[in-house]
From TrEMBL:
<feature type="domain" description="VIT">
    <location>
        <begin position="34"/>
        <end position="163"/>
    </location>
</feature>
<keyword id="KW-0732">Signal</keyword>
<dbReference type="InterPro" id="IPR050934">
    <property type="entry name" value="ITIH"/>
</dbReference>
<dbReference type="GO" id="GO:0032991">
    <property type="term" value="C:protein-containing complex"/>
</dbReference>
<dbReference type="Pfam" id="PF08487">
    <property type="entry name" value="VIT"/>
</dbReference>
<dbReference type="Pfam" id="PF13768">
    <property type="entry name" value="VWA_3"/>
</dbReference>
<feature type="signal peptide">
    <location>
        <begin position="1"/>
        <end position="20"/>
    </location>
</feature>
<protein>
    <recommendedName>
        <fullName>Inter-alpha-trypsin inhibitor heavy chain H4-like</fullName>
    </recommendedName>
</protein>
<dbReference type="InterPro" id="IPR002035">
    <property type="entry name" value="VWF_A"/>
</dbReference>
<dbReference type="Pfam" id="PF00092">
    <property type="entry name" value="VWA"/>
</dbReference>
<dbReference type="InterPro" id="IPR013694">
    <property type="entry name" value="VIT"/>
</dbReference>
<dbReference type="InterPro" id="IPR036465">
    <property type="entry name" value="vWFA_dom_sf"/>
</dbReference>
<feature type="domain" description="VWFA">
    <location>
        <begin position="301"/>
        <end position="509"/>
    </location>
</feature>
Amino acid sequence: MQRTLLWVLLGIGCISLSSARLIGSLVVTTETPQEDTKNAAPTIATSPQIYQMRVDTNVSNRYAVTLVTSKVRNIGDAAQEATFSVVTPDQAFISGFTMEIDGKKYKAYVQEKEEARETYDRAVESGFAAAHVAASARDSNRFTVSVNIQPASKATFYLTYEELLVRKDEKYEIVLNIHPGEPVKDLLVQVNIDESRPLKFVKTPSLRSGNELLKNNPNLDPEAEITNLNETSAVVRFNPDIAKQRILAESLGGKEKNGLSGQFIVQYDVARDPEGGEVLVSGGHFVHFFSPENLTPLKKQVIFVLDTSGSMSGVRITQLKEAMDSILDELKPEDVFSIVEFNSLVKVWDVSTIRVSYMEGEDPYIYSDRDTTTPATQVLPPSFPATESNIINAKEVVKQLDANGGTDIQSALKIGLNIETSNAIKIHQPIIVFLTDGEPTVGESNTERIVSSITALNTLKVPIFSLSFGDGADREFLKKLSLKNQGFSRHIYEAADAYIQLQDFYKQISSPLLSNVTFRYTDQASNVTKSNFPILFGGGELFTTGILRDDSDPSIVPPAVEAWGVNGPIQLQPKVFQVSGNLERLWAYLTVRQLLEQREVAEDKTGPTQEALRLALKYSFVTDVSSLVVVKPNDTATVDTVDAAESFSPSFKHRTAFAAFSPMRNFRPAIVPTAAVSYSSHFGFPILFSQPARDFLRPAASPIQPSSLHTFIPDQHSVFTTSPPSLSKIPWLGTVRNTNGTITVGSDAYSLDYDPSVTPYSCQNSLNKANGTCLQLMNCEQIYPQLTDFDTFKKYFCKLDTAAGVCCPDSPFP
């Protein structure tokens, strides 16, 4: 049986802590009548070759837009299957995908999830190979598309994603995954940072494997070129040749022949207002970044609720002990803490005597070497001061933790909350750090009831930070538990560096600066995202965004940012800055994230679901309620089928295709597995977006009639036209180009063709807001590296009669 195949999959892969894992796939096959190929000449399989890969990221106001471009050619004498795979940051929204095959552009578009499924079914029934991609994100997204490439032909793939950078440990990080699967002759990563505030530093640490957290390694120094253009702007370029890629591949533990496979990291921070933060205003929208400096941290009460059930035995309990040994050293003398361990029993340790002083529960398991006798006098001990002697004793307690028994989660959390409410010292900010590697097996086992009872009991709204350890933990349950209790959840990957992951997590919450933080705005601000936060941690940042009725009205400044500090209530005044850049998508992203969080915990999900869907469709976000649809006319080459259960390698693969042709007959759609989406808490969000991708190329394919297409995809039109040679260096240009060779800016269309009659003139919107000269786009190649997407181009756009121009910088650009 001969088959034509277009398949798309989106699986889970780890960005920073674990190796990639496949979670879901979509396979579409078409069948043609079997033909005799016994006498066919044998073909020689030659893998398609990647001859160019570019990763271009533009950062403006902490908002990053990344375009990944990969170009591949089939140098063999038979059709081959080429696979394009990209790992995106864990909070990124995919918003644009285009394939160029045989000189034609095919754009994906976003639909409501169920509608996308119906579109897919109708496309298959009508004789089209199709696929729709639903976001599947727990830790990271892997976006993969495979298509056939004819002999001596080329294909180009463009993927756009966007993210709001989240400040952690006093810095922002741009994490770019590079996995071409082979050495690439032309490999370039360029990051353009154009901030509204002065840059404090820009640096590129050692490359990471993406599987484990490692310290800086001189052998993995990317030797990137960092150019500071002015106090607010910088350009970072990573352009390793073949030899350098092979050296780095080997240093990362891979094989030279597989090329570079790791993460290129750019870190930076900005100077900020030391008090009320900065309100950035542009185009009728605003964003308020708040990260005050020079504040004395709050005293804290940390209640460690630690799973010591039987499944924690071996490496897990060892890593937990190693992490706790380090975490205890991080406690400050003015802090207080408690250690609660739980399995079938719940035990509260008296740190001063290194003995269990309180225990609840019955152990259904029998262990001859265990003492499960309830103390004669049950007294729930208060939290203990983090003195030197108590820290030493606490480390002895940790050494005695033993993994056995079942998992009584509800009782453990109730006792943890009771410790907080019974604590005689009320000047500390309480925090519960809850770690488990499994599901509840003792006591209450219904996770919905556990969430409801703990939330009801938590009348003081103590933040609960949940850590899921390994694959056995119910991560959805832990996420919901934390969302409803002022905290957030994190996953700890079962790897050699698990103890480092635990330490890094604790560092993020180890220094609370303010509690009950509230942003207040006047009536000039509307559609404001979440504006009340339980805690601001040192090294981090809070942010909110909204729409202005008048972006020049100074009354948008809130009377104060109100919070509770170490000395009581405080009020801080922000500063307002008019900036360039598109804040609308940032607002849309945060609004969608917030709606999806509300949907996560709401009893009635209708309202937040409908509003999240409306915005997702408007801004082309692939989310939990929307999907990406890819439709492509069937080829006539045949390929092997792909087993979705096979282990996946993020590289270009090939399948030998035989030269057999016949009309299309029957079609068989595959079943689409569902996959869930997770979103970070209100303490920080990363993101992805792009221009709405509704236009879609669909060349006619006999015997399908145009009238039958209108029921499931937009009207037929061509996206691709021939570009001047220099314009081919702008990869996204073909995706916005009209059929007559123009592009539309605002309500007018402008030509990209050379026009000798136009007259250049001075302009003031060039790079870094400098003066320049308005030239036709093809005559200003030096600005091309900055034009990573259409929105960025419009910042520098100028019109030359009916021709598209750009404000070209007068001074040379590195």
